Amino acid sequence: MDAPSEVLRIGGAEIAPGERAYLDLPVANLYTRGEVHMPVRVVRGKKPGPTLFVSAAIHGDEINGVEIIRRLLKLAALKRLHGTLITVPVVNVFGFNTHSRYLPDRRDLNRSFPGSEKGSLAARLAHLFMSEVVASSTHGVDLHTAAIHRTNLPQVRGHLGSAGVEELARAFDVPVIIDADLRDGSLRSAVAARGIPVVVYEGGEALRFDPVAIRAGLRGVLNVMHGLGMLPASQKHRRLDAQPFVARSTTWVRAQESGVLRTRVRLGGHVQEGDVLGRIADAFGGIEADVTSPCSGIVIGTSNLPLVNEGDALFHLAEFREGKSVAEAVEAFQAEYSVPIRFDPQEGGT
Prior knowledge:
Structural class: alpha+beta
Oligomer: single chain
Strand content: 25-35%
Order of helices and strands: EEEEEHEHHEEHEHEHEEEEEEEEEH
Protein backbone atom coordinates (compact mmCIF):
# COMPACT_ATOMS: atom_id res chain seq x y z
CA MET A 1 0.00 0.00 0.00
CA ASP A 2 1.53 3.28 -1.16
CA ALA A 3 0.83 6.73 0.11
CA PRO A 4 -0.67 9.18 -2.40
CA SER A 5 1.81 11.45 -4.13
CA GLU A 6 -0.22 14.62 -3.55
CA VAL A 7 0.05 17.02 -0.64
CA LEU A 8 0.05 15.47 2.84
CA ARG A 9 -1.94 17.36 5.48
CA ILE A 10 -1.00 17.14 9.17
CA GLY A 11 -2.01 19.64 11.82
CA GLY A 12 -3.26 22.12 9.24
CA ALA A 13 0.08 22.10 7.39
CA GLU A 14 0.52 20.90 3.82
CA ILE A 15 3.69 19.00 2.92
CA ALA A 16 4.35 18.24 -0.73
CA PRO A 17 6.59 15.44 -2.05
CA GLY A 18 10.25 16.34 -1.62
CA GLU A 19 9.57 18.66 1.33
CA ARG A 20 10.36 18.51 5.06
CA ALA A 21 8.21 19.99 7.79
CA TYR A 22 8.68 20.71 11.50
CA LEU A 23 5.27 20.75 13.13
CA ASP A 24 4.07 21.38 16.67
CA LEU A 25 0.61 19.92 17.23
CA PRO A 26 -1.28 21.72 20.03
CA VAL A 27 -2.07 19.36 22.92
CA ALA A 28 -3.25 21.46 25.87
CA ASN A 29 -2.31 24.37 28.07
CA LEU A 30 -0.47 24.29 31.38
CA TYR A 31 -1.96 25.81 34.54
CA THR A 32 0.04 28.94 33.68
CA ARG A 33 -1.57 29.04 30.21
CA GLY A 34 1.69 28.03 28.58
CA GLU A 35 1.04 25.91 25.50
CA VAL A 36 2.07 22.27 25.22
CA HIS A 37 2.76 20.82 21.76
CA MET A 38 3.54 17.38 20.40
CA PRO A 39 6.55 17.72 18.06
CA VAL A 40 6.26 16.06 14.65
CA ARG A 41 8.94 15.94 11.96
CA VAL A 42 7.94 14.91 8.45
CA VAL A 43 10.27 13.95 5.61
CA ARG A 44 8.71 13.32 2.19
CA GLY A 45 10.60 11.76 -0.68
CA LYS A 46 10.17 12.93 -4.22
CA LYS A 47 9.16 9.42 -5.28
CA PRO A 48 6.01 7.64 -4.02
CA GLY A 49 6.15 4.87 -1.44
CA PRO A 50 4.82 3.85 1.96
CA THR A 51 4.24 6.27 4.82
CA LEU A 52 5.99 5.06 7.98
CA PHE A 53 5.45 6.61 11.39
CA VAL A 54 8.16 6.19 14.03
CA SER A 55 7.11 7.22 17.53
CA ALA A 56 8.82 7.37 20.92
CA ALA A 57 8.19 8.38 24.53
CA ILE A 58 4.56 7.30 24.68
CA HIS A 59 5.77 6.55 28.18
CA GLY A 60 7.46 9.83 29.02
CA ASP A 61 10.46 8.33 30.82
CA GLU A 62 11.40 5.94 27.98
CA ILE A 63 13.96 8.08 26.20
CA ASN A 64 16.10 5.75 24.06
CA GLY A 65 13.63 6.18 21.22
CA VAL A 66 14.01 9.95 21.35
CA GLU A 67 17.72 9.54 20.59
CA ILE A 68 17.03 6.93 17.90
CA ILE A 69 14.76 9.37 16.07
CA ARG A 70 17.25 12.23 16.48
CA ARG A 71 19.96 10.15 14.82
CA LEU A 72 17.56 8.91 12.14
CA LEU A 73 16.66 12.44 11.06
CA LYS A 74 20.34 13.36 10.66
CA LEU A 75 21.04 10.62 8.11
CA ALA A 76 21.89 11.69 4.58
CA ALA A 77 20.13 8.58 3.30
CA LEU A 78 16.79 10.35 3.77
CA LYS A 79 17.65 12.46 0.71
CA ARG A 80 16.94 9.32 -1.32
CA LEU A 81 13.69 8.52 0.48
CA HIS A 82 10.78 6.94 -1.36
CA GLY A 83 7.48 7.70 0.35
CA THR A 84 7.08 9.54 3.64
CA LEU A 85 8.63 9.32 7.10
CA ILE A 86 6.61 10.77 10.00
CA THR A 87 8.54 10.93 13.27
CA VAL A 88 7.19 11.81 16.70
CA PRO A 89 10.13 11.75 19.11
CA VAL A 90 8.04 12.69 22.16
CA VAL A 91 4.38 11.66 22.19
CA ASN A 92 3.80 12.06 25.94
CA VAL A 93 5.23 15.56 26.30
CA PHE A 94 3.89 15.94 29.85
CA GLY A 95 5.60 12.79 31.13
CA PHE A 96 8.80 13.53 29.23
CA ASN A 97 9.16 16.94 30.85
CA THR A 98 8.58 15.54 34.34
CA HIS A 99 10.63 12.32 33.93
CA SER A 100 7.43 10.31 34.39
CA ARG A 101 5.91 7.32 32.62
CA TYR A 102 2.44 8.78 33.06
CA LEU A 103 0.39 11.87 32.32
CA PRO A 104 -0.40 14.40 35.08
CA ASP A 105 -3.59 12.53 36.01
CA ARG A 106 -1.53 9.30 36.40
CA ARG A 107 -3.13 7.71 33.36
CA ASP A 108 -1.01 5.46 31.15
CA LEU A 109 -1.19 6.87 27.62
CA ASN A 110 -0.53 3.40 26.19
CA ARG A 111 -3.80 2.19 27.73
CA SER A 112 -5.81 5.13 26.36
CA PHE A 113 -5.94 4.51 22.60
CA PRO A 114 -7.70 5.18 20.28
CA GLY A 115 -8.76 8.01 22.54
CA SER A 116 -11.48 10.61 22.34
CA GLU A 117 -11.58 14.26 21.36
CA LYS A 118 -13.62 15.10 24.48
CA GLY A 119 -12.28 12.57 26.97
CA SER A 120 -9.51 12.73 29.58
CA LEU A 121 -6.17 14.38 28.84
CA ALA A 122 -4.77 10.95 27.94
CA ALA A 123 -7.73 10.22 25.66
CA ARG A 124 -7.36 13.58 23.91
CA LEU A 125 -3.62 13.08 23.35
CA ALA A 126 -4.24 9.56 22.02
CA HIS A 127 -6.94 10.88 19.69
CA LEU A 128 -4.62 13.61 18.42
CA PHE A 129 -1.92 11.05 17.60
CA MET A 130 -4.37 8.71 15.87
CA SER A 131 -6.09 11.42 13.82
CA GLU A 132 -2.98 13.36 12.75
CA VAL A 133 -0.24 10.70 12.55
CA VAL A 134 -1.71 7.21 12.27
CA ALA A 135 -4.47 8.29 9.87
CA SER A 136 -1.78 9.37 7.38
CA SER A 137 0.37 6.23 7.72
CA THR A 138 0.61 2.84 6.09
CA HIS A 139 3.08 1.27 8.59
CA GLY A 140 4.36 2.01 12.08
CA VAL A 141 7.25 1.44 14.50
CA ASP A 142 6.76 2.38 18.16
CA LEU A 143 9.94 2.69 20.27
CA HIS A 144 9.99 1.72 23.95
CA THR A 145 12.27 0.71 26.83
CA ALA A 146 11.62 -1.21 30.01
CA ALA A 147 9.84 0.54 32.86
CA ILE A 148 11.80 2.35 35.54
CA HIS A 149 14.34 0.19 37.43
CA ARG A 150 14.20 -2.53 34.74
CA THR A 151 16.20 -3.30 31.60
CA ASN A 152 14.98 -4.97 28.41
CA LEU A 153 17.07 -6.93 25.94
CA PRO A 154 16.64 -5.37 22.48
CA GLN A 155 13.61 -7.15 21.04
CA VAL A 156 10.64 -6.64 18.72
CA ARG A 157 7.05 -7.32 19.72
CA GLY A 158 4.10 -7.68 17.43
CA HIS A 159 0.92 -9.63 16.83
CA LEU A 160 2.27 -11.88 14.11
CA GLY A 161 -1.21 -12.99 13.11
CA SER A 162 -1.99 -9.49 11.82
CA ALA A 163 -1.32 -8.85 8.14
CA GLY A 164 2.14 -7.49 7.41
CA VAL A 165 3.37 -7.52 11.03
CA GLU A 166 5.67 -10.53 10.83
CA GLU A 167 7.38 -9.05 7.77
CA LEU A 168 8.06 -5.83 9.69
CA ALA A 169 9.27 -7.72 12.76
CA ARG A 170 11.70 -9.88 10.78
CA ALA A 171 12.92 -6.90 8.77
CA PHE A 172 13.91 -5.10 12.00
CA ASP A 173 16.58 -7.80 12.40
CA VAL A 174 17.07 -8.34 16.12
CA PRO A 175 17.55 -11.90 17.44
CA VAL A 176 14.35 -12.05 19.52
CA ILE A 177 10.79 -11.51 18.30
CA ILE A 178 7.90 -11.80 20.76
CA ASP A 179 4.57 -12.86 19.27
CA ALA A 180 2.47 -10.69 21.59
CA ASP A 181 -1.32 -10.54 21.77
CA LEU A 182 -2.93 -7.16 21.26
CA ARG A 183 -3.70 -5.33 24.50
CA ASP A 184 -6.80 -3.18 24.83
CA GLY A 185 -6.01 0.52 24.95
CA SER A 186 -2.51 0.18 23.51
CA LEU A 187 -1.32 2.08 20.46
CA ARG A 188 -0.48 -1.25 18.85
CA SER A 189 -4.07 -2.45 19.24
CA ALA A 190 -5.60 0.80 17.94
CA VAL A 191 -3.30 0.87 14.91
CA ALA A 192 -3.97 -2.81 14.15
CA ALA A 193 -7.72 -2.11 14.25
CA ARG A 194 -7.15 0.21 11.28
CA GLY A 195 -5.38 -2.54 9.35
CA ILE A 196 -1.97 -0.86 9.62
CA PRO A 197 1.03 -3.13 10.35
CA VAL A 198 2.92 -1.94 13.46
CA VAL A 199 5.69 -3.35 15.65
CA VAL A 200 7.07 -2.28 19.01
CA TYR A 201 10.81 -2.15 19.62
CA GLU A 202 11.92 -2.60 23.24
CA GLY A 203 15.46 -1.99 24.43
CA GLY A 204 17.24 -0.63 27.49
CA GLU A 205 15.80 1.05 30.58
CA ALA A 206 13.83 4.16 31.44
CA LEU A 207 15.59 7.51 31.96
CA ARG A 208 18.93 6.15 30.70
CA PHE A 209 20.58 6.08 27.29
CA ASP A 210 21.61 2.53 26.41
CA PRO A 211 24.18 2.66 23.56
CA VAL A 212 23.54 -0.92 22.40
CA ALA A 213 19.76 -0.47 22.39
CA ILE A 214 20.03 2.87 20.59
CA ARG A 215 22.37 1.58 17.87
CA ALA A 216 20.28 -1.55 17.36
CA GLY A 217 17.08 0.48 17.25
CA LEU A 218 18.42 2.91 14.67
CA ARG A 219 19.68 0.10 12.48
CA GLY A 220 16.36 -1.70 12.94
CA VAL A 221 14.32 1.27 11.73
CA LEU A 222 16.62 1.58 8.71
CA ASN A 223 16.20 -2.15 8.06
CA VAL A 224 12.42 -1.71 8.08
CA MET A 225 12.69 1.21 5.67
CA HIS A 226 14.91 -0.85 3.36
CA GLY A 227 12.44 -3.72 3.59
CA LEU A 228 9.54 -1.44 2.63
CA GLY A 229 11.46 -0.06 -0.33
CA MET A 230 11.65 3.41 1.23
CA LEU A 231 15.45 3.46 0.94
CA PRO A 232 17.44 2.13 -2.01
CA ALA A 233 19.22 -1.17 -1.43
CA SER A 234 22.86 -0.77 -0.41
CA GLN A 235 25.66 -3.27 -0.91
CA LYS A 236 26.84 -2.38 2.58
CA HIS A 237 23.44 -2.96 4.14
CA ARG A 238 24.33 -5.38 6.95
CA ARG A 239 22.09 -7.96 8.54
CA LEU A 240 22.58 -10.50 11.28
CA ASP A 241 23.94 -13.88 10.25
CA ALA A 242 21.12 -15.77 12.02
CA GLN A 243 17.39 -15.46 11.38
CA PRO A 244 15.39 -13.98 14.29
CA PHE A 245 13.88 -16.45 16.75
CA VAL A 246 10.18 -16.14 17.59
CA ALA A 247 8.95 -16.65 21.16
CA ARG A 248 5.28 -17.59 21.43
CA SER A 249 5.10 -16.99 25.19
CA THR A 250 6.90 -15.11 27.95
CA THR A 251 6.73 -15.23 31.73
CA TRP A 252 7.76 -13.04 34.65
CA VAL A 253 9.52 -14.69 37.59
CA ARG A 254 8.49 -13.00 40.83
CA ALA A 255 10.04 -12.79 44.27
CA GLN A 256 8.62 -15.24 46.79
CA GLU A 257 10.38 -13.46 49.67
CA SER A 258 11.33 -9.88 50.52
CA GLY A 259 14.98 -9.00 50.90
CA VAL A 260 18.17 -8.24 49.01
CA LEU A 261 18.51 -9.85 45.57
CA ARG A 262 21.81 -11.08 44.17
CA THR A 263 21.36 -11.81 40.48
CA ARG A 264 23.14 -14.81 38.97
CA VAL A 265 22.12 -14.54 35.30
CA ARG A 266 22.74 -11.88 32.68
CA LEU A 267 20.43 -10.20 30.21
CA GLY A 268 20.26 -12.38 27.12
CA GLY A 269 21.48 -15.45 28.97
CA HIS A 270 20.13 -18.95 28.36
CA VAL A 271 18.49 -20.67 31.34
CA GLN A 272 17.07 -24.14 31.89
CA GLU A 273 14.01 -25.02 33.92
CA GLY A 274 15.07 -25.16 37.57
CA ASP A 275 18.19 -23.01 37.16
CA VAL A 276 18.88 -20.54 39.96
CA LEU A 277 18.36 -17.01 38.60
CA GLY A 278 19.21 -15.22 41.81
CA ARG A 279 19.19 -15.46 45.57
CA ILE A 280 17.28 -13.34 48.09
CA ALA A 281 18.63 -12.83 51.60
CA ASP A 282 17.91 -10.49 54.48
CA ALA A 283 20.23 -7.58 55.25
CA PHE A 284 22.16 -9.67 57.80
CA GLY A 285 22.90 -12.56 55.44
CA GLY A 286 20.44 -14.78 57.26
CA ILE A 287 17.52 -16.52 55.60
CA GLU A 288 18.20 -17.07 51.90
CA ALA A 289 15.78 -18.12 49.17
CA ASP A 290 16.65 -19.17 45.64
CA VAL A 291 14.77 -17.68 42.68
CA THR A 292 14.48 -20.47 40.13
CA SER A 293 13.43 -20.56 36.50
CA PRO A 294 10.04 -22.15 35.79
CA CYS A 295 10.97 -22.82 32.16
CA SER A 296 13.79 -22.97 29.65
CA GLY A 297 14.44 -19.84 27.64
CA ILE A 298 16.24 -16.52 27.37
CA VAL A 299 16.37 -13.68 29.88
CA ILE A 300 14.81 -10.74 28.00
CA GLY A 301 14.23 -8.42 30.97
CA THR A 302 15.60 -7.93 34.47
CA SER A 303 14.99 -5.77 37.51
CA ASN A 304 17.84 -3.40 38.33
CA LEU A 305 16.88 -3.00 41.99
CA PRO A 306 18.56 -5.34 44.50
CA LEU A 307 15.95 -4.44 47.15
CA VAL A 308 12.82 -6.50 46.46
CA ASN A 309 9.44 -7.05 47.99
CA GLU A 310 7.51 -10.28 47.87
CA GLY A 311 5.70 -10.41 44.52
CA ASP A 312 8.08 -8.08 42.67
CA ALA A 313 8.77 -8.99 39.02
CA LEU A 314 12.48 -9.88 38.84
CA PHE A 315 13.23 -11.71 35.59
CA HIS A 316 11.35 -11.75 32.28
CA LEU A 317 11.86 -14.97 30.32
CA ALA A 318 11.02 -15.76 26.70
CA GLU A 319 10.42 -19.44 26.14
CA PHE A 320 12.38 -21.01 23.28
CA ARG A 321 12.96 -24.60 22.32
CA GLU A 322 16.22 -23.54 20.67
CA GLY A 323 17.45 -21.74 23.78
CA LYS A 324 21.14 -22.29 23.25
CA SER A 325 20.99 -21.16 19.62
CA VAL A 326 19.07 -18.03 20.62
CA ALA A 327 21.61 -17.25 23.33
CA GLU A 328 24.45 -17.55 20.82
CA ALA A 329 22.64 -15.23 18.40
CA VAL A 330 22.01 -12.72 21.20
CA GLU A 331 25.66 -12.85 22.26
CA ALA A 332 26.80 -12.17 18.71
CA PHE A 333 24.27 -9.36 18.41
CA GLN A 334 25.41 -7.71 21.64
CA ALA A 335 29.05 -7.97 20.60
CA GLU A 336 28.33 -6.34 17.23
CA TYR A 337 26.35 -3.44 18.71
CA SER A 338 28.57 -2.86 21.75
CA VAL A 339 30.89 -0.74 19.59
CA PRO A 340 29.79 2.24 17.47
CA ILE A 341 28.60 1.23 14.01
CA ARG A 342 30.05 3.01 11.00
CA PHE A 343 27.28 3.44 8.50
CA ASP A 344 27.82 3.88 4.81
CA PRO A 345 28.86 7.53 4.29
CA GLN A 346 25.66 8.03 2.36
CA GLU A 347 23.76 7.03 5.49
CA GLY A 348 25.30 9.69 7.67
CA GLY A 349 28.17 8.31 9.78
CA THR A 350 28.02 6.75 13.25
